[in-house]
Design a protein that fits this description.
By secondary structure, this protein is an alpha/beta fold. Helices cover 35% and strands 19% of the residues. Bound molecules: 6-O-phosphono-beta-D-glucopyranose.
Length: 504
C-alpha cells in the first residue's frame, strides 16, 4: 500500500465527463486512489457533458474504462463502493443558464458532508471550450472563494506563444495563479520525479553534473503508434508542439536545473524556469542545423501493415505536419555551457520508449595498453522513463583472464524488482496533488510561455519553409535520415538501451 496523507473533502466536476480522457485516465486514476485509500473520506465526482446518459448508463460506461485501462480491476465490490460517489449532469457548456445547477450540487454535497469541500473544475475538453466554461463558471459564487476552488487545464496549452499568453491572461482574469493547475502528465510519472531524487539525494552524481564531466545529454520519446484516430488534432499540432514544447522540455529542466533550496512548489518551478530562460533561442537562419523533422510513410510495423500519416483519418493528403522532430538545444549558463542536449520524438518508430542518456566524457586511458582499451567506452547513465523504469550506470570493468582487457558493464536499478510494481500512474499522482493543493508538478504560466518562446523560431521557419521530402521515414524505423544527421555531424549517435538483460 502506498502511503498517502488524508485529504480534505473534495468535489470534482469533470467537464468532458463523457470523453476519452475521463474514460481512459481520470476515472481509472481516481478509482486507484480510492483503492489505495488515498481519496478523501468525503468526496464526489460529477461528470458534465452533452451526451444523454442516465446515471446508471454513465457509471457502466466508466466501469468499462476501468476494465480496459485501470491498473487495478474491480474486486470485492470496490467499484460499487467507489461509484456511489459519481454523479452526472447533462450540460451544454455554452449555456450560461445551466451553470447555477453546479452551485446547487455544491450546496447539496456540502450539506451532506456537513462541512466545506474543495471544489475542483477539471477541463477535460477541447481547448477552444475552456474560455467559455471559465467565463460561465465565474458567474457562480463559489469561484469567488479562491482558497477552496481550483481549475485544472489540460494540454495543449495554446498553439503558439501568442495564444498561450492569451490563454494565461484569460485564466488569470478569473482565477489566481495558485488556483490554476496546468497539466503535463509527464511530470506525474514516478521516473520523472525520481530525477530530482537521483540528482539531489545522492552525493555521487551532483559533483559531476556539469560541463566538466558531461559530454552531452539525449532525450528520446519514441512511440510505435501512429496518430490513433487523433488526426484532426495532430494536424494542428505536429511532434514539436505535441511532445517537445511540453513533456520533453520539462524533462530537460529536471536534468538541467540547479539544486533547489527546498521542495516548495514555487522554488522548484523557479529553478526550472531558470533553465528555460537559459536555453538558447535558435537563430532563424540556423534552424535547419539545429532541428530536423519527418513524417511517416505507410508500410509494415511489427508484422502489421499500417497507413502513412497522409492516409490517416482527418489528415490532409498533402499534409506537411511533422510526426517526428529532433532538436539540439544548448543551455547557456555556467553549468552547461557547450553541452548539447539532443532530443527527439516521433510516431511509428521502432520502439515505444522514453529514455534519457547522460553521456560522460571519456576517461584518460593512456596508462592501459592499447589492446586493453579497444572496447573501453565512456561512462553513461541511462534513465528509463517508460515503459522500462530503470536506471543503468555503465562503467568499465576488467574482463576476467590473464590479460588486461577493459569492457563496459551495466549496474542496473529496476523499479519492478525494487518496489513490486506499486508505482502509481501519472494521473493518480497529479489528481491527488490537485486535491491536496500542491502545484509543484504543474506548469506555471511563465514556464509555459518560456517553453513556447524556445520552440517558436523552429515553428516559424518550418511553417515558412515547407518540407519537400515528406513523407520521409518508414514505420518501424528510427525516423528520417535528417534525424540521424543532426547528431552524427557532432560525432555522436542516438543511444537506445538494449533490452535490460545485462546485470552485475
Ligand atoms: C500526449 C501526446 O501528450 O503524450 C500524445 O499528445 C502522446 O501524442 C502521449 O502519444 C505520450 O504519452 P506517454 O505517457 O504514452 O509517453
Amino acid at each position: 500500500m502506498l502511503d498517502y496523507k488524508k485529504l480534505a473533502p473534495s468535489l470534482l466536476f469533470i467537464f468532458g465527463g463523457s470523453g476519452d480522457l475521463n474514460y481512459r485516465k481520470l476515472t481509472p486514476a481516481l478509482y486507484n486512489l480510492f483503492l489505495d485509500n488515498a481519496m478523501p473520506d468525503k468526496f464526489a465526482i460529477v461528470g458534465l457533458a452533452r451526451t444523454d446518459y442516465d446515471l446508471e448508463a454513465y457509471k457502466s460506461h466508466l466501469k468499462e474504462g476501468i476494465d480496459h485501462f485501470s491498473r487495478n480491476k474491480d474486486n470485492n465490490g470496490s467499484w460499487d463502493a467507489f461509484s456511489k460517489n459519481i454523479g452526472y449532469v447533462k450540460l451544454d457548456v455554452a449555456d450560461q443558464t445551466a451553470y447555477p445547477q453546479i452551485e446547487e450540487i455544491i450546496q447539496e454535497k456540502e450539506k451532506a458532508a456537513g462541512e466545506k469541500m474543495n471544489v475542483i473544475f477539471y477541463m477535460a475538453v477541447a481547448p477552444q471550450l475552456v474560455p467559455v466554461i471559465v467565463k460561465n463558471l465565474n458567474t457562480l459564487q463559489v469561484c469567488a472563494d479562491t482558497a477552496c476552488t481550483r481549475i485544472v487545464v489540460e494540454k495543449p496549452f495554446g498553439h503558439d506563444l501568442e495564444s498561450a499568453r492569451e490563454m494565461n491572461k484569460m485564466l488569470l482574469e478569473y482565477f489566481e495563479e495558485d488556483q490554476i493547475y496546468r497539466i503535463d502528465h509527464y511530470l506525474g510519472k514516478e521516473t520523472v520525479q525520481n530525477i530530482l531524487a537521483l540528482r539531489f539525494a545522492n552525493s555521487l552524481f551532483e559533483p559531476l553534473w556539469n560541463r566538466n564531466y558531461i559530454d552531452h545529454v539525449q532525450i528520446t520519446a519514441a512511440e510505435t503508434v501512429g496518430v490513433e484516430g487523433r488526426g484532426g488534432y495532430y494536424e494542428t499540432a505536429g511532434a514539436l508542439r505535441d511532445m517537445i514544447q511540453n513533456h520533453i522540455l520539462q524533462i530537460l529542466c529536471m536534468i538541467g536545473m540547479e539544486p533547489p533550496v527546498s521542495f516548495n512548489s514555487n522554488e522548484i518551478r523557479n529553478k526550472k524556469v531558470d533553465v528555460l530562460k537559459a536555453i538558447r533561442r535558435i537563430p532563424k537562419d540556423q534552424v535547419l542545423d539545429f532541428a530536423a523533422r519527418g513524417q511517416y510513410t505507410g508500410g509494415w510495423q511489427q508484422g502489421e501493415q499500417v497507413s502513412g500519416y497522409r492516409e490517416e483519418k482527418d489528415v490532409n493528403p498533402q499534409s506537411t505536419t511533422e510526426t517526428f522532430a529532433a532538436v539540439k538545444f544548448y543551455i547557456d549558463n555556467w553549468r552547461w555551457e557547450g553541452v548539447p542536449f539532443y532530443v527527439r520524438t516521433g510516431k511509428r518508430l521502432h520502439d515505444k520508449t522514453t529514455e534519457l542518456t547522460i553521456q560522460f566524457k571519456k576517461a584518460p586511458d593512456f596508462a592501459f595498453p592499447k589492446e586493453a582499451t579497444e572496447t573501453m567506452r565512456p561512462n553513461r547513465l541511462t534513465i528509463g522513463i517508460s515503459p522500462e523504469m530503470d536506471i543503468c550506470l555503465r562503467f568499465q570493468s576488467k574482463r576476467p583472464g590473464q590479460a588486461m582487457i577493459l569492457n563496459p558493464v551495466d549496474m542496473v536499478f529496476n523499479y519492478k524488482d525494487a518496489y513490486n510494481g506499486e508505482e502509481p500512474e501519472a494521473y493518480e499522482t497529479l489528481l491527488y496533488d490537485v486535491m491536496d493543493g500542491d502545484s509543484t508538478l504543474f506548469m506555471r504560466a511563465d514556464q509555459v510561455e518560456e517553453a513556447w518562446a524556445i520552440v517558436m523560431p523552429i515553428l516559424d521557419v518550418w511553417s515558412s519553409r515547407k518540407p519537400i521530402d515528406f513523407p520521409n521515414y518508414s514505420p518501424d524505423s528510427w525516423g528520417p535520415e535528417d534525424g540521424e544527421a543532426l547528431i552524427a555531424k557532432d560525432g555522436h549517435h542516438w543511444i537506445i538501451q538494449p533490452p535490460r538483460i545485462k546485470k552485475i
